[in-house]
């Protein structure tokens, strides 16, 4: 008699065999790169493996895989966007000030962590924080830009700072 684990393994295998080619092709069309498409297709199936999903309950396997792959694709594009912004800023620096490739990789990873941290904030809180920290705007200017009171901007900033401190304390 087949165990539940064996049945799950067989269903996962069938999902992979039946849909890997389709998923890889869809990702290749989105990315224009065979290697990256293959990587993201594999990452999609790794996510499926990691989930404790009842495989029998998946009625629309392509829609299920598409949803997972689309999230991975969005993360990929977001990472590329952050890396490109960093490289553009780096290109403006004089050569002697440019960090080593190892330092660049650490900086990009840190930028991705900051981006993930900011993504967890409500939009107005995130925007107020970025306007203050990156653009040096006053609370009054932020309030005018966001269409809220200056007192609300102070609350937004306090919320953003508390969020940052909480996440730093968790590490």
The separation of the N and C termini measures 46 Å
Q: Which strand-content bin applies to the residues?
A: under 5%
Assembly category: single chain
User: Unreliable stretches, pLDDT < 50, 5 or more residues?
Assistant: none
Shape: extended
- Secondary-structure class: mainly alpha
Integer count of domains: 2
In round numbers, the mean pLDDT is 86
Major sheet description: none
Cα radius of gyration in angstroms: 22 Å
Q: Helical element count?
A: 7
Helix proportion of residues, in percent?
Answer: over 70%
Topology, number of strands: 0
Please give a structural write-up.
The chain is mostly helical and 171 residues long. The chain is 80% helix and 0% strand. It has seven helices and no strands. Helix 1 crosses helix 3 (61-91) and helix 6 (139-146) packs across helix 7. The radius of gyration is 22 Å and the shape is extended. The model has no long low-confidence stretch (mean pLDDT 86).
Task: For the structure shown, list the relevant keywords.
about 80% helix, mainly alpha, single chain, about 170 residues
């Amino acid at each position: 008699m087949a165990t539940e684990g064996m049945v799950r393994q067989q269903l996962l295998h069938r999902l992979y065999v039946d849909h890997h080619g389709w998923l890889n092709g869809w990702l290749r069309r989105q990315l224009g790169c065979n290697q990256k498409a293959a990587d993201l297709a594999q990452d999609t199936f790794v996510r499926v493996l990691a989930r404790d999903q009842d495989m029998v309950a998946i009625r629309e396997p392509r829609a299920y895989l598409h949803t997972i792959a689309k999230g991975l694709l969005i993360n990929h594009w977001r990472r590329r966007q952050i890396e490109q912004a960093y490289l553009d800023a780096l290109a403006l620096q004089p050569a002697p000030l440019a960090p080593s490739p190892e330092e660049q990789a650490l900086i990009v990873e840190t930028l991705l962590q900051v981006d993930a941290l900011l993504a967890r904030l409500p939009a107005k809180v995130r925007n107020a924080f970025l306007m203050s920290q990156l653009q040096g705007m006053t609370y009054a200017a932020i309030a005018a830009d966001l269409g809220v009171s200056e007192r609300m901007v102070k609350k937004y900033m306090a919320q953003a700072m508390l969020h940052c401190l909480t996440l730093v304390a968790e590490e």
